[in-house]
Amino acid sequence: MRELKDFLVAIGAVYEPAGARVNLNDRRFAAGSDVAAEIFDRGRMVYAGKLLGRTRGDFIPSAILLRELGRLEGPNKVWVDERVGWLFACGRDVFAESILKSEGDFVEGACFLVMLGGDCLGYGKIEISDEKMMLKNVFDLGDFLRRERGIEEYR
Question: What is the pLDDT of residues 117-137, one digit of tens each?
């Protein structure tokens, strides 16, 4: 679960998932203690409790975790309009001038949740390219759809 903690520190969130932590292959879950106590053969299990995300080198949060983090006070957040939100969900980056509002220190290397109203669309990392500051897309909810349909050429 170190990867989950590193992710939470990167976006400035203080979050402790309820229940016991369960690792199944590369997936991380929060399960009730009654469910965790009944797990004997992890090799055959596929799912246990609430999916927090998966680890493939870096931690990739689940939509459930992003929704919960988006509701919390404290994490670094930026708000965008519908047009920019759609482009972000399609895998595009967000330029600083397209950000309507932000919470947190907007400095190079910081990670931010990208919000459209009260919904979290994903997260990105602040980078400077050609003297322009932008939020580089690290993960967005559209990733699930692109992987499902095999549409990686849009990235």
Answer: 999 999 999 999 888 899 999
Q: Hey, is 5 helix, strand or coil?
A: helix
- Domain residue ranges in the chain: 2-68, 76-149
Determine whether domain 76-149 maps to CATH 3.40.605.10.
no
Q: Angle 16-66-116 (CA atoms, 0-180°, nearest 5)?
A: 135
Task: Name the nearest CA neighbour of 116 among 89, 95, 137.
Answer: 89
Query: What pTM, to 2 d.p., does this model score?
Result: 0.80
Q: What Å distances lie between residue 93 and 20, 52, 154, CA to CA?
A: 35, 24, 13
| Rounded Cα distance, 39 and 85, in Å | 40
Give tens-digit pLDDT for 49-85.
788 998 888 888 998 899 999 999 889 999 999 999 9
Cα gap 12→149, rounded to integer Å: 33
